[in-house]
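Minutes, project huddle
Topic: does the predicted pose make sense with MRU bound?
PN asked that the exact inputs be recorded in the minutes so nobody has to dig through chat later. Recorded below.
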Amino acid sequence: MVENSNVKTLIWDRKTLKLIDQRKLPFQKVYVECSTFEQVGAAIKDMVVRGAPAIGVTAAYGVALAALQYNNNNDNTDISDFKNYINKSIQFLSSSRPTAVNLFWALDRVKNVLEKHNSISALTEALILEAEKIEKEDVQINYKIGQNALKIFKKEKKLKILTHCNAGALATAGYGTALGVIRSLNSMGLVEKVLVDETRPYLQGARLTAWELEQEKIPYFVITDNMAGYFMSKGEVDVVVVGADRIASNGDAANKIGTFSISVLAKYHKINFYIAAPFSTVDFNTKSGKDIQIEQRPEEEVRQVLGKKIMPDYMPVLNPSFDVTPAKNITSIITEKGVVYPPFKKNLLNTFNSL
Ligand code: MRU
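Predicted holo structure (tokens), as shared on screen:
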């Protein structure tokens, strides 16, 4: 691990991948250094890095590291042996977390590269380039999502925005999706304040989103998750903007546990509820939210807060990490290709196929 004051979600130097340890923020800024795909898989599983697009970019670099590992540890020049090794690394990385489709999307992209060259050296370089491309594109896409959001909101009114979890620079290669929208609105002077759900059990809101907003000097308050209804009823929330981990073709969207409850509260209070996500989060092969696998995380995450026990081990707990917000609770989905309105089944596909 190395200390680093210049904070970036991930740093790639063509030998190693350094990931800011998101388990330690905001108290410590330390990086975990990965030089093998196994270390990358463990970092995703253990939440060193998290957030759908960030997981995808990280996994792509994991495969690039696998190619480097093969070159370092083998005199073998058999291309099929190399491809087997890469495919094994892809399989390993794809088992790290189940819900965010960006992981599988990114791994599919690097897997496709395997068909394009027939020498180990050319493939190694191509796998590295593809991972670097995925990282660069992610930042540009997030920026476009932020720009597209400006089309939705009236230019004369400052907004009180509620967000959940962390869909910021830390959850992506940079800029963020939901937080990218907030950054973009703030740059136009359109943010009055952000209400940040703390997001139990992992506290991505309190620890990560609040930290990012603090860096940007965007006004915010952290609230506990059960306060959202109170603030909505007091007229303290104009809009809800959140990210997503997987959007089914009918618009149902899986995101951090608690998002569904917020969507219900928003609907009750007639508050617009927006999802900000790149098309790499849309899974056209998944028909509806019912088909999305929800990750069940370790019980300790609920029994403890920041490593401190709040209940004894014998007390049973449940820890689903995501829930599904039904399409009917979503006002629109803000993507890099434009703002998608219902009916999502038709409009997601049309927007995806547009230029
Ligand atoms: O368990 P996490 O922290 O990986 O969950 C992250 C979220 O649910 C985010 O809201 C989602 O990935 C969108 S990130 C741009």
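Observations noted during the meeting:
- Residues 10-143 form a domain with the Four Helix Bundle (Hemerythrin (Met), subunit A) fold (CATH 1.20.120.420).
- Residues 120-149 form the longest helix (30 residues).
No decisions taken; revisit at the next huddle.
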